[in-house]
Design a protein that fits this description.
- By secondary structure, this protein is an alpha/beta fold.
- The chain has six helices and six strands, in the order E-H-E-E-H-E-H-H-E-H-E-H.
- The relative contact order is 0.15.
- The structure holds guanosine-5'-triphosphate (GTP) and magnesium ion (MG).
- One of its GO terms (molecular function) is GTP binding.
- Residues 187-216 are annotated as: Disordered.
- InterPro entries: P-loop_NTPase, Rab_GTPases_membrane_traffic, Small_GTP-bd, Small_GTPase.
Length: 216
């Protein structure tokens, strides 16, 4: 019987979803991984994750996306949630100002618990509710610029920019990893050069002993 190895991907990237309760994290996840949306979804309890494999610049990338409750009392042990994460989608609800104001709090949490090189995308979700908008695109853009984050408005309901948000995160992560791999290669090829050998040549001339040092 043929044995199928489970390594059908080139890279596995862990991405965490964060943001206040009710902003739409779980629906963003279900839209991206199963193309599903639920208008009456319940608050997440504990931690869930789902995966989707996709192509990024010709490489097969498996995105493992973790979702937890925005509500403090249901939050999983934070450090375990962030461990190994290389990307984060920080979500707020464009109709709820408070969820946007809390973005800075979530950024602090990322800084405290996640890797400092983590790629962060901020998503203003529920863009379909433009008539109830409480956060302008301009405000979000300036925050994103100040904090050096990528930013998109999304709608899990209308499947708007969900694909793009994850694609952008994955591409950014991939570029960082490639750059790191290249600089490691470069460092290896510099330090990996054959070490110079010192050859001491005694030249008994009339001037006494002379020493020539060669290194390759
Ligand atoms: N109109 C609209 N409603 C949305 C959208 N995304 C999510 N919702 C609704 O918002 C509510 C909360 O969505 P969830 O995905 O459960 O929110 P969450 O961020 O996972 O919440 P917690 O698990 O409590 O942290 C649900 O009623 C969803 O149907 C969207 O893009 N547009
Ligand atoms: Mg949830």
């Amino acid at each position: 019987m043929a044995y199928k190895v489970d390594h059908e991907y080139d890279y596995l990237f862990k991405i965490v979803l964060i943001g206040d309760s009710g902003v739409g994290k779980s629906n963003i996840l279900s839209r991206f991984t199963r193309n599903e949306f639920c208008l009456e979804s319940k608050s997440t309890i504990g931690v869930e994750f789902a995966t989707r494999t996709l192509q990024v610049e010709g490489k097969t990338v498996k995105a493992q996306i973790w979702d937890t409750a925005g509500q403090e009392r249901y939050r999983a042990i934070t450090s375990a949630y962030y461990r190994g994460a290389v990307g984060a989608l920080l979500v707020y609800d464009i109709t709820k100002r408070q969820t946007f104001d809390n973005v800075l709090r979530w950024l602090r949490e990322l800084r405290d618990h996640a890797d400092s090189n983590i790629v962060i995308m901020m998503a203003g979700n529920k863009s379909d509710l433009n008539h109830l908008r409480a956060v302008s695109q301009g405000d979000a853009e300036s925050l994103a610029e100040n904090e050096a984050l990528s930013f998109l408005e999304t709608s899990a309901l209308e499947a708007f920019n969900i694909e793009k948000a994850f694609q952008t995160i994955l591409l950014d992560i991939y570029h960082i990893i490639r750059k790191k791999a290249l600089s490691t290669q470069e460092a290896a090829s510099t330090t990996g050069l054959p070490q110079g050998t010192t050859i001491n040549v005694s030249n008994r001339s009339e001037n006494g002993n002379k020493r020539a040092c060669c290194s390759t």
